[in-house]
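STRUCTURE:
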């Protein structure tokens, strides 16, 4: 199973793409930036209130810690709400 962490993909696109290609048995390649906008939309998601964010973090904290213990594919430092 390949686990991709969004934040790692954003931070190191080429390494995560190469890792994905290896997993799929494909030759690595250099990505080409799209010439057209991708996911260009006019909607926006309102930010969470601090109370809602704290509640969600508390709700998912045990699951996140368990996931991090089970795999090295997650970098916990990229999820600061769950450190500690």
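SEQUENCE:
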């Amino acid at each position: 199973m390949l686990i991709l962490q969004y934040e790692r993909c954003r931070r190191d696109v080429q390494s995560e793409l190469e890792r994905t290609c290896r997993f799929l048995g494909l030759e690595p390649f250099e990505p080409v930036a799209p010439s057209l906008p991708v996911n260009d939309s006019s909607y926006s998601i309102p930010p969470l209130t601090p109370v809602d964010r704290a509640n969600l973090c508390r709700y998912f904290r045990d699951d996140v810690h368990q996931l991090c213990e089970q795999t090295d594919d997650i970098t916990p430092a990229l999820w600061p709400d769950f450190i500690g």
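REMARK: The mean pLDDT is 89.
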